[in-house]
Design brief:
322 residues; alpha+beta; Immunoglobulin-like; 2 domains; five-stranded antiparallel beta sheet; three-stranded mixed beta sheet
């Protein structure tokens, strides 16, 4: 399974706002951020995907500013892609590889994007923060490699305190260098190979947890329900991508439906129409700005949860009796 199929596991809600002191822009891009995982070791590369959806002319003007801040994370490399959604809108994605070099409960801060309005005004929008747990690599080394014996040294008695201090300092420096070498080796190995990231829990369990978090968070009506429907749609798309091994996040709704038609899986058969109806309804709110309500938002969560529950495992064939 491609690691890119798991971007949805740590999705930051697509909350956008203008912070330049001007009036709110009704045509502002809808933005969202996601991480491939929210727990990693120090130095592990993480894949951060920032998406912005707007009409074609505006989407082409969305930029990630140079020198953007990632808090306690360092930017390793980045790429940008654009995709026409076929309804007058376009999605621009910034795929960033980041890493943290300190441990603890860290937070990836809101990622700011810049764009220009039709009148040439420069505006800023941002995603929400994402918590990340970074753990140490050193604790895993239960059997350190033995050090080669050092030749004996003769020294004056009065210098022993100084020598002891130098030995302690040397040991500390050696430890730091060993950790740095280990991190560099791991980073080299990760750059040279394509890592397959497998979730530590069942896919359906993670998807249901993310949907439950959206339900608990509430505030569905923010920005006319568009961020909410963007989030629940991305969670379901990500689950389908990981469950049936195809890149659902990069497909339009019509392309995704066609891809599902080509998948021969008994668990998918009774859900095809339900998935299509869910995605088309979400698109109307996300792109056509069709009015919604809290009741319809909860119905969308119910539908997404039902799809996940129905496709969590393939049905077992009936065994004839007698």
């Amino acid at each position: 399974m491609k690691s890119g199929l798991l971007f949805w596991l740590a999705m930051g809600a697509a909350t956008a706002h203008s912070d330049d002191g001007g009036a709110a822009d009704p045509d502002a891009p809808r933005v969202g951020a996601s991480l491939d995982r929210t727990a990693a070791h120090v130095g592990d590369p993480l894949t951060l995907t920032v998406s912005a959806i707007a009409h074609r002319e505006l989407a082409e003007k969305v930029e990630l500013p140079k020198g953007a801040s990632f808090g306690k994370f360092e930017l390793l490399d980045s790429s940008t892609s654009d995709r026409d959604l076929g309804d007058g809108n376009r999605v621009r994605r910034f795929v960033l590889r980041i890493a943290a070099y300190e441990t603890g409960e860290l937070e990836l801060p809101p990622i700011r994007l810049e764009y220009r309005t039709a009148r040439g005004e420069r505006r800023r929008i941002e995603t929400t923060a994402i918590p990340v747990q970074i753990t140490s690599l050193v604790g895993q080394q239960t059997h350190p490699e033995p050090q080669p014996p050092r030749p004996p040294r003769t020294m004056m008695i009065e210098d022993r305190r100084l020598v002891l201090g130098l030995q302690i300092a040397g040991a500390a420096i050696a430890g730091v260098l060993a950790i740095a070498w280990l991190i560099r080796r791991l980073l080299r190995q990760r750059r040279q190979t394509v890592a397959v990231v497998a979730p530590s829990r069942p896919l359906y369990e993670i998807a249901l947890e993310r949907l439950a978090e959206l339900r608990r968070r509430g505030n569905f009506s923010e920005q006319e329900y568009q961020p909410f429907f963007f989030a629940v749609s991305e969670i379901l798309r990500g689950y389908l991508a990981a469950r049936f091994a195809f890149d659902a996040l990069e497909l339009t709704t019509s392309e995704l439906v066609e891809a599902l038609e080509r998948i021969d899986d008994p668990a998918l058969q009774p859900c095809r129409d339900q998935i299509q109806n869910f995605l088309q309804t979400s698109d109307l709110v996300k792109f056509a700005k069709v009015r919604s309500s809290d009741l319809e938002a909860r119905a969308a969560l119910d539908a997404a949860e039902g799809i996940v529950q129905a496709t969590r495992t393939a049905p077992q064939p009936e065994v004839p009796h007698g």
